Amino acid sequence: MPLDSNIDPATHKFNLVGTRPLRPDGVDKVTGRAKFGADANAPGMLVGKILRSPHPHARIRSINTAKAAKLPGVKAIVTAADFKEGKRALRDVLCNVMARGKALYDGHAVAAVAATSASVARKALKLIQVDYEILPHVTDVDEAMKPGAPLLHDDMITAHVDPAPKKPSNVAARCEFGHGDPEVGFKQADVVIERSFRTEATHQGYIEPHACLASMGMDGQGELWVCTQGHYMVRNTCAALLGMDVSKLRVTASEIGGGFGGKTTVFIEPVALALSRKAGKPVKIVMSREEVFRASGPTSSSSMDVKIGVTKAGRITGALAEIRMQGGAFAGAPVELGAMSAFACYDLEHVKSVGWDVVTNRPKQAAYRAPGAPMVAFAVESVLDELARKIGMDPIELRLKNAAKEGTQSSYGPKYNRIGLRQCLEATRNHPHYTAPLGPNEGRGVAAGFWFNFGGQTCVSLNINIDGTVALAVGTPDIGGSRASMCMIAAEELGIPYDKVRAIVADTSSLGYNDISEGSRVTFSTGLATIQAARDAIGKLCARAAKTWGISPEAVVWENGHAKPSSPNAGDFAPLSLADIAKKAGNTGGPIAGHFEVNADGAGVSFAIHLADAAVDPETGRVQIKRYTVIQDAGKAVHPSYVEGQFQGGAVQGIGWALNEEYVYGKDGRLQNAGFLDYRIPVASDLPMIDTVIVEVPNPGHPYGVRGVGETSIVPPLAAIANAVSAAADVRLTELPMSPPRVLKAIDGKAAGKARR
Amino acid sequence: MVQVKLSGSFKQAAGRAEVEVEAANIHQLLTRLGQDHPKLKPMLDRGVAVAIDGQIYRDDQFRPIPAGSEVFLLPRLAGG
Amino acid sequence: MSTVRVSTTINGDAVAYLCEVDETLLDVLRDRLGLTGSKEGCSTGDCGACSVMLDGRVVCSCLVLGAEAEGRDIRTVEGLAAGDKLHPLQEKFLEFAALQCGVCTPGFLVAAKALLDRNPDPSETEIRFALAGNLCRCTGYDKIVRAVQSAAAELRKG
């Protein structure tokens, strides 16, 4: 099949795509055999531990490591001085890995030790003397923006403001998107609602803490075993920070125990390598859960104002959002993505969103599943819900009247290609959940969500083995069952059974560069590369058959796993199976392999609608989710079970964000709840089953129509639940999480307001 | 000539909502935009994406830009 | 640090080891015995990834000292399958796609086994409460609960 000839996924009959085979890494994972980050060991291995700042903001006057170095069993100590201050782009990464000059948040790494045992390493940390000059701190986004707020970086001049500010501030950048003029739109509206919202930072909460095993040889060649979403990113970043040639560092991705965006950067990896280089021995570092919370990426907290106007007929005439996000101690809060996605679901004439990227004395935020989008959707979809009530319109009807479709100019710029929002809204309206009766103190909420989905650099090798089986090497860590999907896709193309293909995540020296497993890109882009690598191999298989038969390669076609003459004119030869050709490969030209390298672009955007029923206890303010349904466009679901799994997992992370999860900072700027007991993620007994509906509106940018599915599912839940809780409690909730005290306060406030009237 | 639509921060930096550039692919587009509009240069260097007829390209610099297509400049996206 | 000698039974086999007095059973299993199927997610007993059975009861092995295992019976995820035959819970976890990243899976399997040992026909609510000490961040629990329900039905058939 030629490269650009996309099949019609709506009518094409797939053999394997769309079925639910068992995943190839499954048995290892149910028997304890799978090797995760902390499961690797090496002879002579040392234990690495990191000393972290107890202060949210402090100048580091000096670090004295002399006493610690004398402790028996201590083999190496490193500080910021052991890393290369390289390119500007890496400066913040380096400063976050090891504090340079100032500690910028509670938990910021200041030094590290490698020792013969964990207990010696812990003792050594206590012997390191750091002389801190404590500075005033700020952890709240709105406080950090005020003039006179404690300043984190004295060279931070707000970017994209004209004229440029003369004085430094904690505001890294401003951004703006939209078209038309919202003020004109508001004049055309019958009802205009403006509200302010706040969300607290949450953590990705992967169950596996960051872990790695580094081994540097005295010849300057290094190996690193690490749980990460992107081992090529780890290699390139570490090589730069340690001043190594990229070729001298080989990184192997372990099985990864969850990431959700939080494992898309480096924390401990350069430290372990630096310690290993100094000690001349392998060094293993495993973060404690407390370190994960204090020092690895939470998401941003936000403060937002949203104003939307509608006509009585339900047409949105104007929409405006101002979004402030703090992203911790360094620039890079995902406010651009938040601002771009704010009104992306709707077809609007007058729309504008403005974003502010703010720094505070908190750990540097890391991407978390559709970074920036869930909090903004919370604000926008809440206001829409209120508007629907005000004009007496069904909330799905209101969204259908304004839904973006193919050809709509998106609020962030370009016109949409083929998209499935309308189909998702209609599927929601037709779902029995939407009209099911509600119990006492229960409310139903609906919300829409949007996410971009990405492609990126991708490289795949597909080797035909002598017995007709296939070894597929991909370079994107498997974070949600992608090896199963890749085996299915390769087998689909080659026309062989699923269990004849084995997929592995290759190390950085065995395969070309691959971007991180992020942005819901793996099934889309590694899938696309796998399709093309298989087609490349098929071309070679057909050529071998042609040679065997003594006919032209153009006269050979590939059908159902066999090379065949394309027509009776081409000759009368019995078809050769993949195994037949593979067996003879050694004598017909050598090994047969397919490859594909690509900038996979053309990932289709996706939309989801979530339906939530919440019960609110009027006495305690406790919220319970009674029923939940996810309706999302997957383009084409390769392995429906794992697509459903992404829908369900995203929804439940959103339920946690909406109801329980938050970073709590004390007045002292220290994180108060750095553990799973006090930072409570949803458990099985908190939840109902999560129903799913997979909508399939093919992505024209992919041969099978695949769209990314991993992230969109966390965008609508905050709003869907807020709308359900607001309906149940009959008062609008505008702050997350909707923990019992906050809900109770809103209920009491409503009662007090009524009493006053 | 390619009509490049700018919104938000790009529009602000360039001083208008649409600029014309002679370019056959994304690489040429970005190079010439930087030359013609020095205020856009730092933003281009930070990384941008280009949408051609609704399809967003982050990386593929040699992607041809068909005549008459709708071209939008966007910030480069990163995900989770 | 003083060490103690411990004799115990792990997955039916007699095992002896030396450990430091403050070393957890989880560290002994993982670092001294190479049984890395039990995972450390928090070391405070909040996530359940290190769940093992100790004399038939589910415990977080991060909250048990290695020294406490003396004379006890320990079962880990590595002992769940019988030879080359997976336990029905393991089979159903695969069939129902009840794992995504799989790092919490060993703990869930151990906790689910303990539940089905004492209650062969649990309701959905009983399953959810029995597994409430095990955190999963990927699946939203739906497919885990369904897998346990199906495994229970399979086991009842005998």
Question: What can you see in these coordinates?
Answer:
The complex is a heterotrimer of chains A (757), B (80) and C (158). With 757 residues, chain A is of the alpha+beta class. Among the domains of chain A are: 39-136 and 218-279, Aldehyde oxidase/xanthine dehydrogenase, a/b hammerhead (Aldehyde Oxidoreductase, domain 3, Alpha-Beta Complex); 420-453 and 604-757, Aldehyde Oxidoreductase, domain 4; 459-600, Aldehyde Oxidoreductase, domain 4. Chain A has 20 helices and 26 strands. The longest helix of chain A has 28 residues, at 522-549. Chain B is of the alpha+beta class and 80 residues long. Chain B has a single domain, classed as Beta-grasp domain (Ubiquitin-like (UB roll), Roll). Helices cover 30% and strands 26% of the residues of chain B. Chain B contains three helices and five strands. Chain B is globular. The mean pLDDT of chain B is 87. By secondary structure, chain C is an alpha+beta fold. In chain C, helix 2 (88-95) packs across helix 5. Chain C starts with a strand and ends with a helix. The model of chain C has no long low-confidence stretch (mean pLDDT 97). At the A-C interface, helix 1 and helix 18 of A face helix 2, helix 3, helix 4 and helix 5 of C.
> Structural class, judged by helices and strands of chain B?
alpha+beta
- Highest-level CATH class of chain B: Alpha Beta
Main sheet summary of chain A: 7 strands, mixed
Tell me the distance between the termini of chain B.
36 Å
Strand order across the largest sheet of chain B: 2-1-5-3-4
CATH superfamily grouping of the domain at 420-453 and 604-757 in chain A: Aldehyde oxidase/xanthine dehydrogenase, molybdopterin binding domain
Give the low-confidence spans of chain A. none
Topology summary:
The complex is a heterotrimer of chains A (about 750), B (about 80) and C (about 160).
Chain A: H1 26-31, E1 46-52, E2 58-64, H2 66-70, E3 74-78, H3 91-97, E4 102-103, E5 109-115, H4 118-127, E6 129-134, H5 141-145, E7 171-179, H6 182-187, E8 191-199, E9 211-216, E10 222-226, H7 231-242, E11 249-253, H8 269-279, E12 283-286, H9 289-295, E13 301-310, E14 316-326, H10 335-341, E15 351-358, H11 373-391, H12 395-402, H13 421-429, H14 432-435, E16 442-451, E17 456-464, E18 470-474, H15 482-494, E19 501-505, H16 522-549, E20 556-559, E21 562-565, E22 576-577, H17 578-588, E23 592-600, E24 606-616, E25 623-633, H18 640-659, E26 690-695, H19 717-729, H20 740-756
Parallel strand pairs in A: 1-12, 10-11, 14-15, 18-19, 25-26
Antiparallel strand pairs in A: 1-5, 2-4, 2-6, 3-5, 7-15, 8-13, 9-10, 9-12, 13-14, 16-24, 17-18, 17-23, 20-21, 21-22, 24-25
Helix pairs in contact in A: 7-8, 10-11, 11-19, 15-16, 16-17, 18-19
Chain B: E1 2-5, H1 8-14, E2 18-21, H2 26-36, H3 41-46, E3 48-52, E4 55-57, E5 71-75
Parallel strand pairs in B: 1-5
Antiparallel strand pairs in B: 1-2, 3-4, 3-5
Chain C: E1 3-10, E2 13-20, H1 25-32, E3 51-54, E4 57-60, E5 73-75, H2 88-95, H3 105-118, H4 124-130, H5 142-157
Parallel strand pairs in C: 1-5
Antiparallel strand pairs in C: 1-2, 3-4, 3-5
